[in-house]
Amino acid sequence: MSVKIITVAKQLPKYSCTTAEILPLLERWLQGQDTRFIKKVKKLFEGATIDRRYAIMEPKEVFTATSFEEKNDIYCREATILAELALRKALANADWGPQSLDYIITVSCTGIMIPSLDAYLINKLRLRQDIVRLPVTEMGCVAGVSGIIYAKNFLQANIGKRAAVIAVEAPSATFQLADLSMSNMVSAAIFGDGAACCLLSSHEADAGPAILDQRMYHFYDVEDIMGFKLTNSGMQMILDVDVPNVIASHFDAVIHPFLASNNLGVQDIKYMIFHPGGKKIIATIEKIFAVYGKDISDTKAVLSQYGNMSSATVLYVLEHIMERAPQAGELGLMLSFGPGFTAQSVLLQW
């Protein structure tokens, strides 16, 4: 029995703003800095190809100096709200009751919660008391795909079961007001907040694209190019400018052996479900895929509409694809990159 993805539901925070609306806040924040530096940062925001981004806080609150504790308290409160709404929406889409879930996997890296998010969802939705929990907390942008891989492995070993993967991220809660590094500037320019829930099943009666295969690929000796450093003021972004080049140098090893093991090539894949890490990463991947006549327009659309929401973003791209009702037999490739450094892939067939 195959494991299938049944539905994806996104949930956005209540606050949002355009890039044009952010620029005055940016100028006030950087007041007193070198004029050339301010122009460079504004150019970063304007060139990030993000029309609108969402946040768990009002924009002016993001640019207000607060403690790590205060920002994390906001993250805990709002992440729980977003996760509950996303899960309820997905269950309604699938016409499943909360008690039908056998596994719950929550993924997030932009705040700290103990008990983890899944414990709160069990209580709020009265999920089964014997439900199996797996919180995934330190895998960054790749964790949306990671959660699907873990759910697939659970369900493949236990036929007739159902799982929910809930990704919730609030990069706005990690923004460092006193950090004038380019890593902080770039991350502020490309990230946004959001949540999504993906339901999976190994039940015979449930319909959706089947997961044919999955793979994790780990890069050696580049663990320092992406992640967070925990500081007294919060979670400080680590984002090396060489990330797109590192991805490009390993791309053949990530994609081709995985597809070849399924007797496939890039030319056989109809839908590229790629995590939109940022403008430069998208440009790198788009150039590679163009050789095969493939485009990543859905990935570019999600980046433009919401920004990079870390682990949740690839699920927004998946939702885009599923709403287009692919034809039976068509193939899709989910792909994300994240701290470690790692690339993770899932092969789908409708």
Characterise the protein shown here:
By secondary structure, the protein is an alpha/beta fold. It has 11 helices and 13 strands. Strands 1-7-6-4-5 form a 5-stranded mixed beta sheet, with helices on both faces. Strands 8-13-12-11 form a 4-stranded mixed beta sheet, sandwiched between helices. The protein has a two-stranded antiparallel ribbon with strand order 2-3. Helix 2 runs parallel beside helix 7 and helix 4 crosses helix 5. It is globular and about 65 Å long. The two termini are 15 Å apart. The mean pLDDT is 95.
Please state the overall shape, judged from the principal axes of the Cα atoms: globular
User: Which band does the percent of strand residues land in?
Assistant: 15-25%
Helix content range of the residues, please? 25-40%
Strand order of the largest sheet: 1-7-6-4-5
* Low-pLDDT runs: none
The largest sheet, given as strand count, sense and whether it forms a barrel, is: 5 strands, mixed
What's the gyration radius in Å? 20 Å
Query: How many separate domains make up the residues?
Result: 2
CATH H-level homologous superfamily name of the largest domain:
Thiolase/Chalcone synthase
Give the CA-CA distance, first to last residue.
15 Å
> What class, by secondary structure content?
alpha/beta
Annotated CATH architecture of the largest domain: 3-Layer(aba) Sandwich
Q: Given this structure, which CATH class of the largest domain is correct?
A: Alpha Beta
CATH topology name of the largest domain, in short, is Peroxisomal Thiolase, Chain A, domain 1
Give the ordered list of helices and strands: EEHHEHHEHEHEHEEEEHEHHHEE
Annotation field: number of helices: 11
What's the pLDDT, averaged over the residues? Answer: 95
Number of strands: 13
